[in-house]
Amino acid sequence: MDYFKKVAFVLPALLVALLFFFYFGFSTPRGSVFPQYVRIEKGASLLQIGQELKREGVVRSQTVFVSLEKIASAERAVKAGDYLFNRPTSVFGVVVRLARGDFGIEQRKVFVREGDTAKDIAAKMRDFPKFNEQSFFEVAGGQEGRLFPDTYFLFVDITAQELTQKMRSNFDEKIETVSEKIKSSGKSPSDILIMASVIEKEVADPQDRAIVSGILWKRLDKGMLLQVDAAPETYRAVGLPAMPICNPGLDTIRAALNPQASPYYFYLTGKDGKTYFAKTFDEHKKNKAKYLK
Length: 293
Fold this sequence. Notes:
By secondary structure, the protein is mainly alpha-helical.
């Protein structure tokens, strides 16, 4: 008799649980508006992903989504990237799409190199139909230096405004890793970024950038002209350029933050790509004759 009482109690509870699971599994939140774009960040936890999907109205229950991912052992299989949901999709369908990396819209790979300018970036975007080059210059012109060089997977219908926001957001995230060092450097964030952009353009060998950083900061401290070829105005006026001359990578920003002391005041990059240093202008002239001709 006790056995039947237990069954009579357990079965309805199981039925309710199953109904709850399938209801939340196959339905989407009321009032959801499509299409919806959702970004899955690399390294995000299932809880973070579920929270983002629920916030954007793609799934009704974060708990059901996380449970299904764990049941399917798909946590490691989730592909990071930008997803487009054109229509309501069951949570089962969402799990499958994340595992397959089915982004829902064509994406193209764009590689922005360290030292690229806004003009260089615009040239890489010419096959994107909704990307307007002039709009990009208007929006991104004041962001030079903060359009972080990286590998981007972009929707084919991305606009100039969206690309600028994406690259600037990436910059803000990366620069946060050195924010405390910038604060304690005694230099303004703007000057650090401008110096990094100059170093990025001037020095081919990454290992020599800290030494060049030390040379350029030393010239500034002594009131000397920087005289860097990448910024012609530094031959005419003392000080840094008014704004970044390109978009430097994080390692070069670190070099600007961590100048290496040396006895040198001059340097050049030879035709072989190597950096040659000199203590005096006469030594520098000899290096020019030897390595640039």
